[in-house]
Each structure stands twice: as C-alpha cells, then as structure tokens.
Amino acid sequence: MGDDLRFAADVGIEGILARRLVKPVFQPVVSLADERPVGFEALARGPEGPFHQAPALFAAAARAGLSAELDWLCASAAGQAYREADLPEMALFVNLNPDTLASDPPAELVEAYDELTQERDVVLEITEQSVMREPARLMEAVLDARRRKARIALDDIGVEPGSLAAMPLVNPDIIKLDRSIIQARTNSWAVSQVVNAVLDEAHRRDAQILAEGIERPEHLAVARSMGATLGQGYLFGRPGPLPDQVQRSERELARVTSRNVAHQTPFDLLAPTADIYPTSEEMFASMVGHIENQATQTTSPAILVVNVGDGDYDDESRIRHTYLTSRGIDVFVLGTGTARNLGNRIRGIALTDDDPLLTERTVLFVGSRYGSGAFARRDGDTLHAGTCYNPERVIEAVLTLVNRLPS
C-alpha cells in the first residue's frame, strides 16, 4: 500500500476508494491527571496530492455521494492497524456518522466492525451536527453501539451551539469540547453557555469531558479549568503511527448508565408516575401554554416536541413556534397530515392512520439542564391529562417519539 499511496496523486476519489488508498494515523487521547494515554483516535489520510488531508478527502467523497463508503473504509483500516499493533488496553476512538451506520456496507466491513468492537475497547465518535440533522438514525446508531458495548463520544461540542439541547438525548459517555472553545481568546457568553451545559450534563450522568486542541500549556490550564479530565492535541502528540509500546494511564474511561428507550407513547410512559385528571381541551391548552411560556424564557438551546394528534396545527401555533425558533429552539410537530417542512426550524412529522398518538396530545420541552411536559389522552369527549417536571422522565418521553422522525 505504501507505493500506491506515494504515487497516486492523480487518482480521483472513486479510484482512492476502489484501490483502498487510505491509511490511518493515530493521535493519543490522554488523562489530564497523569498526562498518559487512555487510547488513540483514528484519523484518515489519503494519497499524496489534493486528497491527502482528511477535510479534502471527505469533502470529495461527499460531493461524489460516497461518504458512507469512505467512512467504512477508514474504520476498517483503523481497526486492522489497531489489532496488528497489539495494544489491548488502549481504547480506539473512531468516527462513524449515523448515515454510515444506517447504510448497507460490504459484508467484509461489517464483519471487521463486529470483530473490532468484540476485541477492543471502542469509542464511537458522533459529530454534534448530526444530532438534529438525522435524529432517528443517530439514536439507532447509539443504541446499536451500546449493544456492542462501545462507548459514545459526542464530538465538536461548541461548533453548533443549538445541538447542546440534544446532548441529553444522545447520553454520551464522553463529551468532546471543540478546539474553538479551548483556544478562545476571551471567555464570551457563548463559551460560558457551552461549558456550563457540558459541565451540568457530565455531572448528572457521570460522563467525562475531553478537551480538543490542547497545543500549549495555557490551553491545558484552560481545559482543566473547564472541568476536562481527558485531553487531545499537539501538546501530547501529533497524528502518526501507533507506538510499539505505551504506558497506559491508570484512569479509566467513563461509562454512563443507558437510558430507557421505551416502545410506548408519552402518555403510557409518563402517566404511571403522575397525577392524571379529566380536563377540557381549553384547560389542556392552558397547560400547554405554561410549558411553552417556559420555552420563551430560556436563554439556552432547547427542543420542543408537540403532538397535536388528530387535531389541527393552526396558524396561531405556527406563529408561537416560529418565535421560539428565533430563540434557538428546535421545534418538532407531530400530527395527521403534517407537512414535513413547516418553515424556519419547525419540522413536521406526519402520523399514520393507525398510530396510537392520534388520540393523544403532548408538549415536551427539553433543554441542556431541564425538562418539562404536559400530556393527555382522549377518552370519548374527555381528555385525561397530567404534567411532568422530571427532566429524565421527559427525555425518555421524547425518545419514544424519535423513531417517528423522518430522515
């Protein structure tokens, strides 16, 4: 492969994939307690030429519609190199997008992925940009990785602040602060917002914070001040081949408790632990208004999920939700005949005629540090309704709706 990589400067992306002209390099991930490695992140390099660096390589694959093929090739090459290096105590951090995991890769690559997760401690890195773009595929990928005993790292936190709200849904073992946060020249409000949300999530779920882009001692000091216990950057090592020997850190990687992902409706999930009362449509509208008013007061990114069932999504609701999107809140609306694109950051999810959600009404509000909801089920002319202000329960209720979100 070495000769191929050296003399393939004029090969296009299709040729690179066909001839497997991609090699892995590895950068250490260290514990900041003793500055010794806990694992290595696999990065990709193409042949010498325009596609040698990863950004150009992956951009070319995206333009050609070959991103999944490149992802699988990189993961396979990294896994093979890791097994050959014989570093059984070191975790392998590998990037795989939800789109890739939902694709139909060659059998040999699936087998390689299976073997890797069985033989090595694997941390699957998911970029935060995919959280809101493909939520259903993302959660499917997360659940599959956890079944394989892999850990989940949420990457690039801080690049797209709006995705902070979805962090509790992903429930990562490791939260990676982007280099832009660690290397920020000033402690702006936006930086503080990211750090506070990450610290809160890490504390509540016993997750670890990993700081990227640690290149100088002052970056290391900033990372520690932000609560990071893991680090990555040129200060600890540049991307390159795996070492023959390495002294592993005594610190272990975190493993969070998996959340319950129930195949129920929000009412079925929340009603057993709530006080349920008969109410009218008008009274339930007031309950919904209280939850949505909380959303108008938030200064942090959040998610609002609304199920109107077999009712109407009227213009007044659209105006309210459009205002919420202007405050950084992503809104999802479920209902019969709901259009997929409702404007701004409002996404519609049409319910099928046999969906049990048709007789329910739900509003669930989830932020990086809070959660609340109102829910009801119709029985004849009467609604039976309740409320929930337990963030963990509200998050579980949101997860019952994720599998209905379109790709």
Topology of this protein?
Blueprint: H1 2-6, H2 13-18, E1 23-31, E2 36-45, H3 54-63, H4 67-85, E3 91-95, H5 98-101, H6 107-119, E4 122-127, H7 129-133, H8 135-147, E5 151-157, H9 167-170, E6 174-177, H10 179-182, H11 189-205, E7 208-211, H12 217-225, E8 230-231, H13 266-270, E9 277-279, H14 281-297, E10 302-307, H15 315-326, E11 329-335, E12 346-350, E13 360-367, E14 371-379, E15 382-388, H16 391-402
Parallel strand pairs: 2-3, 3-4, 4-5, 5-6, 6-7, 7-8, 10-11, 11-12
Antiparallel strand pairs: 1-2, 1-8, 9-15, 10-13, 13-14, 14-15
Descriptors for this entry?
single chain, 407 residues, alpha/beta, TIM Barrel, Endonuclease, Chain A, eight-stranded mixed barrel, seven-stranded mixed β-sheet, 15 strands, 38% helix, globular
